[in-house]
Backbone:
């Protein structure tokens, strides 16, 4: 079975590097991005089981990155991370389509579990899309 | 000043205090988040060593050094917040206030970075005239920085200075602003005894 593939996005290089290593030690295939623009480029050209996205980043912040990423790929599973979780921000993130919203410092095993949840949801959504395509093809040929 | 003006001034001061402390706590939280990850990684390496897996001592040393460096950075944020907290203790009148500008710019640096602008300090020593309230000056400087960083295009540089000029104490910001930065609250300016001027390339607060 392929390793779950996750993209971590944070403007703090040491945080990014350390979280990436800890997730890699837990069997994840990890890619990183230092800002929203880099994240959007990587999302456009790769398939990720989940994205872990910092909320407060310069230029394009986490919420804006979330919106733009989901516009291009609505099945993306995105977990927002922030140093200051408020109910309002959490609700806004979920309404925009985030999988979940976690406060830093996040427990690495809880984060890993959430990434795996994202992977399961993505696989399920992909299977639904495939089933619908098969049904459409069968209908087209009168089967 | 009317009672309404006093109420407004109080709300502005509270807003300033809230923004400054929120900014500092966010910075501290970021340092703690990095330290948390690094400490846990260190713990994981030690657990691996306990199970007989080889661990690179240099790697461990590097991690420890990075945690120590982060403690230092967090301490700097706390020191700045403490210096700010003691602004109100300082006696007015002819006080050398060369620390005010670097303190405010350091405290604002994270907000500037999030806005995509860089701050550069341009002035040297300055003394505070007796009539200038240090806390109100800091509040006015902060709000000028907020407006200027919002008016400046991303990637631009804002130079800042605090000088004793013929007309009085002047706090200035120079940059290439997309629009004229807005003034701080009128009641704040009145309480500070300051005149405000803004153009597309300069902001001046004269006391």
Residues:
């Amino acid at each position: 079975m392929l390793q779950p593939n996750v993209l971590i996005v944070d403007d703090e290089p040491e945080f990014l590097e350390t979280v990436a290593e800890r997730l890699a030690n837990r069997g994840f295939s990890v890619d990183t991005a230092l800002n929203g623009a880099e994240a959007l480029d990587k999302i456009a050209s790769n398939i990720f089981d989940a994205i872990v996205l910092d909320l407060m980043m310069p230029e394009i912040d986490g919420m804006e990155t979330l919106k733009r990423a989901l516009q291009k790929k609505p099945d993306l599973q995105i977990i927002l991370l922030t140093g200051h979780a408020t109910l309002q921000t959490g609700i806004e993130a979920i309404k925009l389509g985030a999988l979940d919203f976690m406060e830093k410092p996040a427990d690495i095993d809880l984060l890993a579990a959430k990434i795996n949840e994202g992977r399961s949801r993505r696989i399920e959504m992909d299977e639904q899309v495939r089933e619908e395509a098969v049904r459409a093809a069968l209908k087209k040929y009168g089967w | 000043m009317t009672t309404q003006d006093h109420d407004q001034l109080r709300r502005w001061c509270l807003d300033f205090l809230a923004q400054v402390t929120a900014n500092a706590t966010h910075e501290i939280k970021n340092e703690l988040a990095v330290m948390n990850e690094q400490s846990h990684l260190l713990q994981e390496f030690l657990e691996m060593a306990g199970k007989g897996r080889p661990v690179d001592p240099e790697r461990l040393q590097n991690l420890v050094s990075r945690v120590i460096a982060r403690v230092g950075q967090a301490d700097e944020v706390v020191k700045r917040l403490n210096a700010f907290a003691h602004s109100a203790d300082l006696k007015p009148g002819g006080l050398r206030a060369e620390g005010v500008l670097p303190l405010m710019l350091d405290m604002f640096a994270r907000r500037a970075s999030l806005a995509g602008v860089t701050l550069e300090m341009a002035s040297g020593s300055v003394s505070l005239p007796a009539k200038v309230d240090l806390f109100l000056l800091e509040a006015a400087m902060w709000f000028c920085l907020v407006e200027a960083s919002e008016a400046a295009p991303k990637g631009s540089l804002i130079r800042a200075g605090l000088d004793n000029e013929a007309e009085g104490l002047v706090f200035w910001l120079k940059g290439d602003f997309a629009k004229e930065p807005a003034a701080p609250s009128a009641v704040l300016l009145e309480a500070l005894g300051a005149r405000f001027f803004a153009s597309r390339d300069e902001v001046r607060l004269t006391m």
